[in-house]
């Protein structure tokens, strides 16, 4: 490939990789498996090896692309938080061993630590005198997000280490398998969409601003390394010291001598995956002696002394009993394969996504086919391959309908999308999912309005839109079977409470495509009311940090839809978007002119939730204690800021005093 062609290919690869980064890190909606993503990154890296002039400091090959979140204070890592390079084959693993031997100028067998690769979210925990001081995400490797308030709520981290040491430990936040299953079962019982997978749930929970919800979900941590602190001369000694200090450590880890023992333990871990309390997607291989690591050093992105061996997704054979269509909240019509139940990666799989019409045509997938299924990234069941030699003539090509299976309106295939959409906002399938989302915990949290009651209200023709919820009355509800007077009164009260939810939660409740809880918060900060948001131009939206072109266009499309605009107007007429001028004035007076600092872990508030609340009441919330500080709010495990405020004679409130002052909330 000549340089000109290489430039064009580099530009396309870079755009594609960054698009997948946005889907994965910002929207939590990965479109491809880890292996497919790594293949794109590998092609880019190889291209830059052949044409070094293409390699730039901001290339995806040179940077860690995990997103930052402006809702959390930035924290600069004392030493870069790098990510390991990946391999999927033993030949590439051998090449890695050869590179290490050349770098060490020693080809004798080395001691390697081989550990399960937890499919979680990277975290750095900084301890001071045995107590957790700050917890930080990877971010771009140099600056991450301070998520200490949520990490203090992890279910397996001790309040204090067994020794008063000060050091940094790195590891993974994760959602326990059994806890993930229980949370999804509870969501399905209440009619809410189940969480997609443990890793996405972990990412979302770490960035929650509602501390109570973070504690309810219950994340865990597992330590895998120590940074620049003498806890031992080898990696395995460091891990043993972490165990002794009370930090949760990696199970099934082993020190292996030479290549053959490493490969044997990699295979053992693969066979033992179901025994672990967390999802793993590979094995991590690291030089055990710390002095040898220091000799090898690192690139701008990855250490030279370690590598991650990624496992191929587990496969199973089964039969497609039927191809069904599922209409989502935003109208996307997704084909689903209903399968003869089969065990896969420790769970029973009876459904698999077929993605879209093009995927069905490309793989020639038919009802009745014998197929191989796998979990992409160990998460999403999908049809990998059709076993065409098993066909007996009874299998027929699937014809994608021209009309929506739920409302019989024409389906549209937009040129810039793979998905086929039902664009009828009155479609009952879309309406059901919009209503469930509207009432869900992260949105308006309408207690008593789960999926079951949404279905009943729709079947009884009591509601036909979001606004109809606020037209319900006691008389109509009491006519419903199994709806008692107390339940009906509670539901009506919950609906009235929902009218007072913050603007950010109302944005999220509207169900705008690609707008999650954090994006809704960002939009609310930049567009403070309905009129500001619905009149925003594409340029206005794209100027907002963390709102890319995908989200900006989705917001614009939502407010340009005639049918959805009508629904918004109905809600507006019912006072859904109003906030009492009296309430606003009262809030602005409570802390007017005060400079407030928040420190420590609070039980009843997320740090940024409280920051928003105090800012709305006229306070200026800062991150450091100074002569200008009027008030320090101190939660559990408050550190040096508390001591400094006390020395300076600054007023200090604990959470009980704060709750007393905010009792009108």
List the main descriptive attributes of the protein structure presented here.
Helix Hairpins, globular, OB fold (Dihydrolipoamide Acetyltransferase, E2P), alpha+beta, 5 domains, single chain, 665 residues, five-stranded mixed sheet, D-amino Acid Aminotransferase, Chain A, domain 1, 24 strands
TL;DR of this structure?
The chain has 665 residues and is α+β, with helices and mostly antiparallel strands. The protein is built from 25 helices and 24 strands.
Low-confidence stretches: 580-588
Q: Give me the CATH superfamily of the largest domain.
A: DNA ligase/mRNA capping enzyme
Helix count equals 25
The assigned structural class equals: alpha+beta
What's the CATH architecture of the largest domain? 2-Layer Sandwich
Structural notes for this entry:
The chain folds into five domains: 3-54, Helix Hairpins; 74-310, DNA ligase/mRNA capping enzyme (D-amino Acid Aminotransferase, Chain A, domain 1), CATH 3.30.470.30; 315-410, Nucleic acid-binding proteins (OB fold (Dihydrolipoamide Acetyltransferase, E2P)), CATH 2.40.50.140; 428-573, DNA polymerase, domain 1 (Orthogonal Bundle), CATH 1.10.150; 581-661, Rossmann fold (3-Layer(aba) Sandwich). The strands form six sheets. Strands 12, 13, 14, 16, 17, 19 and 20 form a seven-stranded antiparallel beta sheet that branches. The chain contains 25 helices and 24 strands. The model is unreliable at 580-588 (pLDDT under 50). The chain is an alpha+beta fold and 665 residues long.
